[in-house]
Design brief:
Length: about 110
């Protein structure tokens, strides 16, 4: 009976760990990779698909640290275990006068590191 529980637990851990992995950033979306900032928001997207997000507005803060799940057009989805957040990208990464910018959830961000 104990062996059956151990196998069940190991299988569950394997399924969870597979769900937590990101497929990484697709080649056609590599311009999203980097550290993006504004006065009230920080967004870090790594090539392997890790995403860190912090936003402070009106005295409240929001944060997330989760793997990239997918892109839906210009938008991207992060999350794990069925809990997902979609970031709405109204202006995808583009260069203006030597500065990389993108607009996420209504906030214009500048890339400070790639």
């Amino acid at each position: 009976m104990k062996l059956k529980h151990i196998i069940l637990f190991a299988t569950l851990l394997l399924l969870i760990s597979c769900n937590l992995k990101s497929p990484g950033v697709p080649k056609e979306k590599l311009n999203y990779v980097g550290r993006w900032e504004s006065l009230s928001m920080k967004l870090v997207i790594t090539k392997d698909g890790s995403v860190e997000y912090e936003r402070v507005e009106a005295g409240t803060s929001k944060s997330a640290n989760a793997p990239l799940q997918k892109f839906e057009g210009d938008n991207f989805v992060i999350g794990a275990l069925g809990i997902n957040t979609t970031f709405v990208v109204s202006k995808p990464p583009h260069e203006e006068n030597g500065i990389w910018k993108m607009t996420v959830d209504g906030e214009e961000l500048q890339r400070t590191m790639q």
